[in-house]
Amino acid sequence: MSNEKDKDQGPAGPPSLDYLIRPHHIALLAIFLIVFKDFDSKQYHPCFMLQLYRMLLDEVAESKTTHHNTAADLKKRVQALPVDEDDSDAKLVLKMFSEFNLVTTEELISFFSSTSFLAGEILRLNMSEDVPMLFPEKNDEDVTVFARRSIFGYFCRKTFLGYSKLSFNGIIKLHEDFNLWWNGIEPRAGYKRVPKDDMNNANLQILRTKGDRLEWAQADRYETFLKAQAVGDDTVAKEALRAAFEQRFHEHHDSGVRQYALLNLLRMHYVNNEFEAARQILNEAVDTSRIYLDKVSLQQCISLLHRFPTKYGRDDDKRPPLNELQPDLNPLDILYDVKKLMEESHEQPMSLSFMKITEAIGAFDYWFDHKLETTTEADQFAQHAVQSIAWSIVGSEDLARIESEIVIVFTEAEGADNNRLTACLNQAYRRARNGYYEDAIAMLLQPSVWKGISVADYGFWAQEIWHILALRASRRGQDRLYRTYLLPRRPPGDFNPRLYSHREVPTPEAKKSIADKLYEVLQMRECDQSIIAIEPLLSALWHSEFLLRINYYRTGILFLADVGLHFGFTQRSRKMVEDIMPQLVTGNDIEQRALAAFILARCIIMAEGLEASALQLAANWLLMAEKDFLVLQMYRAAVDVQYLLSIVYDNMGAESERDEAAKRHLATQKQFRILEEVYVDEDTKAVLEMVSRIGMALNSRKYEGL
Predict the structure, then answer these.
(1) What gap in Å lies between CA 432 and CA 434, rounded to an integer?
(2) Which residues pair with 408 in a beta bridge?
(3) How many Å apart are CA 413 and CA 420, to the nearest integer?
(4) How far apart are CA 524 and CA 535, in angstroms?
(5) Alpha carbon distance 149, 171 (integer Å)
(6) DSSP assignment, residue 324?
(7) Contact present, 23 and 178 (Cβ < 8 Å)
(8) How far apart are CA 391 and CA 2, in angstroms?
(9) Among candidate residues 62, 249, 40, the one with its CA nearest the CA of residue 154
(10) What are the pLDDT digits (tens) for 601-647?
(11) Measured distance CA(101)–CA(520) in Å, rounded
């Protein structure tokens, strides 16, 4: 029974009239003749036939529309078929196919007409009696192996008719291509586009039907556009896109697909951050979509318009332009609205982001139910990648890790999927935040992460590796390495220098974020100006609580407790840190845990005095802070912790522990001074050189030209 939804999709398109016999067709036809010749007299094992049918269905269906298996791949698939020890017929099939060859043109003609050279022996296969027995003619009452309209019968008949239309020059060319392909000399021999117009036709066919005289649209030129776009060759990409949509799609004069060409060109400029050029094309794409009454293309153009960066005036509304939920709205555009809502400059709480994520999930379900499609099948995992970022912002690192792992597990490795790359980048940076810098860099340098990504995505990948190296250098206190070596080699892209040095001055036009206000608190505390630090600290706490930026809120509470110690609010500061410590002790953010343990130890010492129990409790928290700071390689902070720890042990009368803490203090100071004087880190240099070589390899990937 047919599905009611199929009726709304309109009638299926006509079958393709374009068919040329290719080298792999001959090899597949040889398999059919070897296996199904005198089929009733053979006793194949069921397991062998099951795997053989699966292989033949996959090859005959030609799901790989552009590139087919090489001869070596096809031979390997045949030899991999399961054969029992007592299945002599199956063994004979493998032996005959491995020795199959057509050395001369006469043997190719004999293969299709009177004889077939298989396994070095001449097996009589009269075409009028043997090959047609695989498929019946219209009035044929003989029993055959394949039904006329079966997929195998249709393939055999189509291959035979394709050969019958060839001229003698065409047969010679087919034999040359087959030998090059079969012997592995030229795997692409026989698969190039054959011109069909009268001026450029090579006269390979003696009988030409209407489908052989007209050049119908093929996917190879659009594939060239995608490959050129992936390697950053804009010139070839534009030319391939023009050629792809100037092809003959139907017999009418107006193709009706011009808006698709403009939409693809618009996306290419947008991905390359060429917004001015994209705006110019956008107006033309909108007008063309309206002329052709294409609601889907018009909706995509409007959605892209909402993605362009907006320049706000002083009195303009700062709320971002969002898409209204509509049937033709792409779910990915709704997820991009989530990105806008998560930006601090728009001052929107995270609850709105989760509402938009719910809308995107509903839109995906609607598109699935109505058989609409996004760009790739992997786009269904985009909402998991966005959820990973959203949960991380609200402080639920465990949920964020689960969502990112869903994307990594269920998407294809070594592909061009941006969702997988985003999940890998975020997961690697989380590892680096917890001190596992080498593991994070090793994860991103795996070929499964970067192999197959586009040049545009390579920029994000290279930026993330640079950010990890800069994070490690700033935590180690390697200011010289950071400023003289890393900064000049920073990949282009978004960059906030205050992430690695809070002493940097923000740009005047930039609006102060929550992080900027916390940086001001650090600067004021270093200058012993706690009174001035109160205003930006309270503002950061209010905004982080309202916007649900829980990580910033936790840091703000720790800073508030530290400022409270300066004013003598020891008990209140201790209570604040103890209340928030259960959220930090899990270790999802080791830096926050180390800072909290250090502040809590100071609160205990100042609140309880020199009591033995209080000093022991403070020493335990200081040991945790010391361990975490050393894992993070934050030696400057570790020196302060070890110094305070030695004083605590001295007041406790624990001389051996005091001496050990003092030795660790001196060793950490020495390590810090050594790293501080480093100008060029060999590991950092090797990583950046590897990133450059990978970029050159990605940019020099070969693709088929026009």
Answers:
(1) 5
(2) none
(3) 8
(4) 11
(5) 27
(6) P
(7) yes
(8) 43
(9) 62
(10) 999 999 888 888 999 999 999 999 999 999 999 999 999 999 999 99
(11) 79
Using DSSP's 3-state secondary structure scheme, residue 121 falls into strand
Token pair 């390997």: residue: 76
Gap between the Cα atoms of 193 and 30, Å rounded: 25
Q: What is the largest CA-CA distance in the chain?
A: 108
Q: What is the token pair recorded at 600?
A: 């809590």
Burial pattern 522-532, b for ≥16 Cβ within 10 A else e, equals: eebbeeeebee
Distance CA 167, CA 348 (A): 71
What are residue 116's phi and psi, to 5 degrees? -135, 125
Residues recorded for the chain? 706
Cα 144–Cα 149–Cα 152 angle in degrees, nearest 5:
65
The contacts of residue 210 (CB under 8 Å, 6+ apart) are 17
Question: Helices (DSSP H) in 208-309: which residue ranges?
Answer: 210-213, 220-230, 234-245, 258-271, 275-291, 295-307
Compute the distance between CA of residue 488 and CA of residue 495 in angstroms, rounded to an integer. 13
Query: The tokens 């139907």 sit on which residue?
Result: 250
Confidence class of residue 545 from pLDDT cuts 50, 70 and 90? very high
Nearest-5° Cα angle at 370, 369 to 374: 95
- In DSSP terms, which residues pair with 121 in a beta bridge? 118
Q: Give tens-digit pLDDT for 235-261.
A: 888 888 888 888 777 777 777 788 889
Residue 109 pLDDT exceeds 50: yes
The closest alpha carbon to 363, from 422, 303, 307, belongs to 303
pTM here is: 0.78
Task: Compute the CA torsion angle 624, 626, 630, 632 (nearest 10 deg).
Answer: 60
Cα dihedral: 512, 518, 520, 525 (round 10)? 170
Q: Which residue has the tokens 């689960």?
A: 402
How far is the first Cα of the chain from the last one, in angstroms, to the nearest whole number? 45
Q: Token pair 């050029």 is at which residue?
A: 277
According to DSSP, the residues that pair with 427 across neighbouring strands are: none
Paired strand residues for 347: none
Q: Do the Cβ atoms of 461 and 425 come closer than 8 Å?
A: yes
Contact 455, 237 (CB under 8 A): no
- In the block, residue with structure tokens 């659009």: 222
